[in-house]
Predict the structure.
Amino acid sequence: MRRVIAALWAITALAWGADENPLKTLRPEHPRLILRDGDLDRIRAMIQQHPLARKIHADLVRDAEKFMTAPTVEYKLVGPRLLAQSRHVLERIYTLALLYRLEGKKPYLDRALRELRAAANFKDWNPSHFLDTAEMTHAFAIGYDWLYPALSPEDRSWIRAAIIEKGLDPALAVYEHPAGTWVTNRFNWNQVCNGGITLGALAIADDEPDKSRAVLRYALDSIQHALASYSPDGGWAEGPGYWHYATSYTVYLLAALDSALSTDFGLSASKGFDKTGRFRVYFSGPSGKTFNYADAHDRTEPAPEMFWLARRFFEPVYAWQEQKLLEAGGNSDALDLIWYEPEARSPKQDGWPLDAIFHSVQVAFMRSAWEDPNAIFIGVKGGDNKINHSHLDLGTFVLDAGGVRWALDLGPDDYNLPGYFGPKRWTYYRMRTESHNTVTIDDENQDTHAEAPISNHLFSLDLSWVEVDLSHTYHKLKQYHRKIGITQAQQIFIQDVLQADQPVEALWGMLTEADITLNGQFAELKKDGWTLSAEILSPRHAVFDVLPVTAPAPQTPNNGAKKLVVRLGEKVTEMDLKVTLTPHRTGQPKPAVATRPGS
């Protein structure tokens, strides 16, 4: 049935795409973006019938009360960006406008208009960093469309003028000269800019049809560059953080097209997009943390687009994850209520395998169980060092067990760096190979142009592993393969096999915040009532050591991170290093796990 629906969707898309006027089916009435008036009764019923929907609504009311007394935004660039201001306006307009539509309370309307007026008076929306412009245009589109029946002709005029002068006109200037811009970009800038600007065009299309039509034609062509990046299996090379940013704006765009035009021109049927929610479920570990490569924080936070994806692609596991995060206290978004999907099933109920590889991005995930907060979870990446936000970290991994993140990736907050505006300090730490769970060769970085495929794998009940071919990652090596896996759902093993023409110093390393006790070929890591017993199986002369993780500036704390390393004692031309890591509760014996041939 799902294939039939997808085929019909694609056929419809071809018909729509052949039409030269993408606004041909524009709904004349407002509101028409994402949430039409006919949807409000469904939402009210959800609030009455479902405790979680009721909680989301209560959270939004609480947030709205805070917004009512907060200062309106001011034009303030942080570094080169106005992005924080745009996001403040966007969050406030979504929340206030939704509650006004649901409850009809005029103070919500008045406060939303004050916010819009303040931002409309900005000299511009910082088009030099177009994400800022796109997100502010998005906010104004929602405010204009959702509040339209309550706005005076004067209010409609100045909001519409702001959308045109500060949003659509700057966008058209970029669309007309697209080389090297977000128009041809394959990643998050493309979706955010096209998404925000398209919402602006759809909001005012009845009053500005020519300009809106031009924007829509450009956007429908441009967005396909980014949608191709989900192919074939839904992976996202920019990592979990930018998956959310890019996918949320893709969904805003698709939802707005469908609600305003009754078609998304087949964009949602792009190859791999239906599977991208799986990528999010798999990159989220049992401890509530993600495999946070590529500039991502490690927190798994709600992503309301998962509800939309669940409904569009009939995937109840997507809704299950979003429900669990909201039930656990994650921040509610207005779109969580709008797209709320009550039908949910866990990955275990739906028969999802424990392990998965996303070959489009060369990232793999393994776990010992679904729905067990103490389960073992490993994320391993190969990939491409040329991708946006890459950190020269091919072969790195994270490890959870017992609810503890044992092997960590240093996210942007870990060193208290000033956002993205302290490039010397930030780049020094995040862009060095030594700052990840890798093997360093002669203390040098990986090749900045290197690619590392996942070359082999085995997934079974007793033994699961993946192997990453890192042979082209280090200039001084002839061959290098890293194998990481789980044995009998109890033990993790990491095997590094390399060859070099000339002797090199190879240093194995794993970043951790645990307390470490060393004993030659053995080490014990302890944290939060759990122990991770580490052992070097080969070579037997190798020993564990600990290195401090020093901050790039004295005022920058390291938050307790340190690096467990393996020292070989000499330079080598060949290495076959095998380390096992066995989690268990502190005070209880380490599980006895039989070593398997070939593991």
